[in-house]
Amino acid sequence: MTAAPVSASAISPGTSALLFLLRARTFVALILVFTYFAVMAPNFLSLANAVIISKHVALNAFLAIGMTFVIITGGIDLSVGSIVGLCGMVAGWLVINGIDLGVLGIGYSIQFNSLEVAVLTVIVGMFVGLINGLLITRLNVAPFIATLGTLYVARGAALLSSGGRTFPNLQGNADYGSDSFPFIGSGTVFGLPFMVWMLIVVALVAAYLANRTPLGRHIYAVGGNERGAALSGVKVNQVKIFVYVFSGFCAALVGVIIASQLQAAHPATGETFELNAIAAAVLGGTSMAGGRGRIGGTIVGAFVIGILSDGLIMMGVSSFWQTVIKGLVIIAAVVIDQAQSKLQARVALQQEAAASRAA
C-alpha cells in the first residue's frame, strides 16, 4: 500500500499560527518597535535620525554577521568588542605614527595611505580571530573561556598601545595619502553613508557564502551535529577557525569605521558591543544550540536593536536601563527560540504519526 501524503489538517490551525509567529518573530518585533518609537519619540521619523540609525545599525550588523557564523557552529565570541577597541587603536596608531623602523637601526618610519591602514588593521582583527580559533580547535578550550580570555588580552593591548590615552585628530596626512581616512566612517556615496554600502557588500557575501557554497553547508553541519559532520568528511577544525577569523574581520571593520567616524581612537571603544551582536543574531533567529541561523534574519535583528537603542535615547531613557533592556531582549530571544524548537519537534512528531496512520 502506498502512503498517502500528510495533509495540512494533521497540524491544528492554532499550532500552525503559533509556529508562524515564532518564525516571524524578528519582523513582528521590528514592526512593533518601529511603530512604538514613531509615535512616542519626537523626530524619530526625521531624515537626520534615519541616517543616524542606519549608521548605528550598520555597526551592530557587521558584528552580528560574524557572530551569526560563530553561533551557528555552536560557539560564541565574547571578544568582538575588545577587537573593535584594539583595531581602532591600531588604525589610529598607523594614521598618526606609521611604523617606526628605529628599532632596526633605520632612521625613518613607514607611512600608509587610508586603504593600507584599513587593510593592516583588518589583518590584526583576523589574527585575533585566528588565535580564538586555534585555542578552541587545537587546545580544546571552550569557546566561552577562549574568547573571554582574548577579550581581556585585546582590551589590555589597546590600553597599552597608548597608555590608556586617546589618539586624537585622525584627519590623516595628504602627503601620505591618508587624508581620506575620515571618509570611511563619515563619507556618503549616492546619498547613503559609505559604511552602509560596506555593510551591503559584506552581508551579500556572507549570505552567498552561507547559502550557496560548500563551506556554508559545512558551517551548518558542524553546528547541527559536529561528530556526524566529521564522520562525513567535513574538516571541522578548519570550519571553526574560519568562522572566528571572519568574526575578527567584521569586528576590525567596525574598529576602523568608528575611528574614522570620530576621527579619534580610544582604547575603551567597543565595550559591551558583543552584547548587541549576540542580541541581534539571536533575535534574528540564530539558535544558540547551533545549526540554525540566517544572515537576513540577523540584519533585521540588528535593525531591531539599533532602533531600540536610538529610540530609548531619544526618549531620555538612561544608559543603565538600556543595558538592562538589551539583556532582557537576549533572554526573551533565547526563550522564544527554545519554544520554537520544541514546537517544531512536536509538529514533526504529529506529522510522522499522521503519516503512519495514512500508510
TrEMBL record:
Subcellular location: Cell membrane
Metal-binding recorded as keyword: no
Top-level division of the source organism's lineage: Bacteria
UniProt entry keywords in alphabetical sequence: Cell inner membrane, Cell membrane, Membrane, Transmembrane, Transmembrane helix, Transport
InterPro entries according to UniProt: ABC_transp_permease
TM regions (residue ranges): 26-45, 57-76, 82-103, 115-135, 181-210, 241-259, 295-313
Bilayer topology term: Multi-pass membrane protein
Example of a GO cellular component annotation carried by this entry: plasma membrane
A family per Pfam: BPD_transp_2
GO MF: transmembrane transporter activity
Broad class of where this protein is predominantly found: membrane
Name by which UniProt lists this protein: ABC transporter permease
